[in-house]
Amino acid sequence: MSTHRLNRGAQTQFVCLLIIVNAPRTIYGVYDQSDFIVAKAINQASLQHVNDAAVISKLVLGPLWIQEKIMSVKSFCQNVISAITNDGCLGTPLSNKAKLNHTSALKPVGEPSLSKRFVRDEGGNVAMLFGLGSLILFISAGLAVDFSRYNLVYGDLVESMDAAGLAIAQYEAGNEDIEDAELKIIGRRFFDENFRYANLVDDLTVDFIITNSRIEPRVTGTMDALILQTIKIGAAKFNFNNFDLGTSTEITKKGSGRIELALVLDVTGSMGDPADGSSGGESKLDNLKSSVDIMLQTLYGDSTTDDNLKLSVVPFNAHVNVGNTDEIQSASWLDQNGEAFYNGARFIHAVYPTENDLSQNAREENSNGTGSGVATSTGIPKLIDPDTRVNHFDLYASSSSLEWEGCVEARPYPLDEIDLPSNGTISASEIDALIASVPNNVDDSSATGERTEEAFDDMPALTVDAATLARAENALFVPIFAPDGVTCENNGDPCFNLSSSGSILNSAYTLPHSVYWRDFIYDKPSDEGYSNGDYGQNDFVRDWSFAKPGAGSNRDAVYADIVRSSRMALWTPGTDTYWQSVRSRLLELDINNAGKDEFILRNAYVGLYDPTTKKYNLRYDDSVTYNVGGNIGPNPNCPPPIVPLTSTRSTIRNAVQALTAGGTTNSAMGAMWGWRTLSPEPPFEEGVSYENGQWQKVVVLMTDGQNVVSWRDTHHRSDLNAYGMAREERMGSGIDEAWKMRDEIDNKMLRICQRMKDENILVYSVMFGLDTTDEESSQFEVNQKVEDLYKACASSPEAPFFHNVLTGADLENAFEDVAADLVRLHISR
After folding, report:
1. Which residues, other chains included, contact 461 with Cβ-Cβ below 8 Å and sequence gap of 6+?
2. 641: which of 54, 55, 323, 343 fits an S-S bond (Cβ 3.0–4.6 Å)?
3. What is this structure's pTM?
4. Tell me: the pLDDT tens digits for 315-334?
5. 3-state secondary structure of 644
6. Residue 816: beta bridge partners?
């Protein structure tokens, strides 16, 4: 009988414990249902109808029913366990009347009460152990219920705070003149609409701290414990009277908050024209300036600076200007010493010879020297150094009339497509991997993804082997130096005046000697089928200053020796290793025919290098008059300089207002330098680490046309741009024509955009003045290709990440839309 009575007691406790243990699951189920109803109701409510929160709350299943269900569980447990232990669930002794009621409720008719029989049972040791275990289980289950209830209310509290903060920010962004007091009212209404458990929280306070850059909702309050209010076990007393709900969160504006934003802006020549194609009115560049003003107003409001906002400006055409301050000109990320293999690659480095440098292999060319003190039969001086590249910085230093404006050449492919620090390293295998496959992050399930995948699939092979590219010096940046053009005019220039023989005394070297002319020693481009005029489009040093007989200061005689050196190397190099190496260097420059290619040599000749002064004499020096101006000179069409990341609004605005239009479009170069201004690595180091989760990096890329590489009827086969000239194949093997360079710039831009996005950089793109609606237009196909390109570049092919606009007003709206998207807030803490 005792066993039977013990089992009945155990069964009773077990049923109670099952209810307690399963209470959290039951309660969660109820709350889940409530969540669904709340979410559905609130989603149906418009932000504009925030005043109807009271109406919405009537549709919501409130928490009172849930509390009643929990209380019924609590009451049942009290009845069951107090009948067994003669004590209350919460450790409070029951009154005699309560004891009687509870024991009577469980007492079978005609038998002693269950509690009396349970206490007198012979299996009391087991009962004591079971009762102790039941108490522990009850406490654990009670904690689970109360903490689950607390976490649920707390989580809803935080979400409601965030929703209220976001609502304030959106209202503020759309209503510039709204007062903080009104914003706080809106925030409180939104909080009340979303928070469902206000009746469970005591002393609830809600406030909003509003500043120019962020909004901080703050909430305090307490919530009573439901089951485990105060537990007393022996002398120990555990207090769970209430839970503290005090908390705050910070909402930071993307644009006025922790944002690093690069404005990559097209300043090509077409930006100087009106958007509607008329001959008057505002230019597209004027429209752009107004649009950036609107963006700055949205981002900064009335502030002049903001520590949580940094902007850079990257104007681009065919080039990008990194700046030419004294600090930049001495920077370690520039190729100061001419070490990069592409520094001076289109020029010939020539040096002053010594007596021991005079070749004895070509006496026939110079056997008729005459005059007092003239050495005869001395051969051709070894002037050309085929193993040394011309340093562009030394060319600029050669004359006070020449100044580097700040434009740089692109690094060799594929280093020009990645954020490799100028002091960083990369292996040959890593370079090979860059061109081996499509990155995993490219989503080819969409048209824009297919276009990006195509750009990676079409990556050209390397022109220079990976081992050479991997050398540290090739990560440095080289200042641009456009070569002087070749001129052939009817005013005495050498192309028309050297058809007769003669000799000149050369006393520029250690041993004076006679330089003997030969017929047709100088040539004009048309001799080889090229355009004389296309070479002369960058004429800033007249050829007669160094190549015309009688130019003076030994200029003519020295250049005559350079010409004779090239003839020697190409015609009769023999087995001499020096002349063989000179021949190889000349062939690299497309000088193949000593009788007709002299004009190419003239294009590559820069004078003689003086290692003491580190200057080139006898062509680029202060003894000649330069025709530098407009787009002519060593810096043709160099745009205004980059403005690195700054928090100062006026610095950005002033730079944009000073922009001028000129040159052709190279959006890949612009995008890459936009990325570099956001990078924490040199050459620009103002950007935070990519791993810094508090900041969002953003690029806005704007253009008014397709990428352009102008064809020139020269041996270079293109105009000069940041990637050199087509003949040099700087963009990859086989990219040797202007049209191929243009197509490759498109693909290069997409690869750069994808790699930026892989670094979690948001990319916005804006097309301006390119109509893709008029299918009858002759430009429709071209414009459609540009649209496909810029859609694929953007983080999304839809607004606000992509805009295609036609008018100045539309451009302003697009920049305002981008700014508004940046102002939409993210929870930063």
Report:
1. 435, 732, 733, 734
2. 323
3. 0.72
4. 999 999 999 999 999 999 99
5. strand
6. none
